[in-house]
Predict the structure.
Amino acid sequence: MLNAVDQALVNDLTSGPSLAQRRALAKIITLLESTRMDHRHRADEVLNTLLPKTGKSFRLGISGVPGVGKSTLIETLGLHLIEKGHRVAVLAIDPSSSLSGGSILGDKTRMERLSVLDKAFIRPSPSSCTLGGVAEKTREAMLVAEAAGFDIVIVETVGVGQSEIAVAGMTDMFLLLQLPNAGDDLQAIKKGVMEIADLIVINKVDIDPDAAMRAQLFITSSLRLLGFQGNPDHASHDQEYWHPTVMTLSALEGNGVPELWEKILHFQKLQNANGKLQYRRKQQAGAWMWDRIDAGLKNAFQNHPAVQTLLPGLSAEVNQGTMAASVAARRLLEAMGHEFF
């Protein structure tokens, strides 16, 4: 049951004026990100209340190495979508310091034209060193943005390493940004993230059009090889199914952005028609549940009194080389009252 404060936030989020709605959206996401247990229980109630109003947006994940132009593309695409009457929410994940835990959160500063529009909402969040550069509560924040009526939700990841599966596991379409000098086809296929990308976009074509064309050819040939040897859905040429493609554009100049949106609409149309979109979301919901279970079990384990008692001594023995790490781990797990092998 919602308390009066949370009920007022929900009312403002779903039916309040623009300013009140944006304030409520920010406050609810802050509540979701809190680590306090009482806040967690309140957030759960808010999420369950909002759940019937979610699921109506298109969720787009965007990733790529730092400097590839993710923020520039998101702003240019967001402005294009707002001109077409859409409402755009951007959940931008920034890298966190492994020492201090803090982050600069500069994406909102980069998107200064988009951030001032009423039909746009930008929320930068620290990754908190989570796998794939996706903040722990990004999935929940996405649902809140949907309940607020944003019909396009864009998730931008850190783009470091090959663990971008996290964003592909929570969005309807995963877009991978590449630089023109991406290397040859062997280098392209070595990037494991290629296997999960629905659309690969080579940005900054304005800098070197010839290099961008070569990169497009290399990556296209790599996708063909992945189609034959990897995902069986990619090997089919059935026009009722989407097959990963490669395109070029200049986010800075805006060239190719309308064509990008047309490809995204085509993807959405096909995925809705063949049932893949709903299937994908059901799979993601199940994976999200187990992800939260894993996180909850880890938290419960770390805070278990018996574990906290044994941990310093066993850690010291492991560091000194007098006990195998696997033996120490088993003893800590057994301290919780269960046997693990």
Notes: The longest strand covers residues 88-94. The chain has a mean pLDDT of 84.
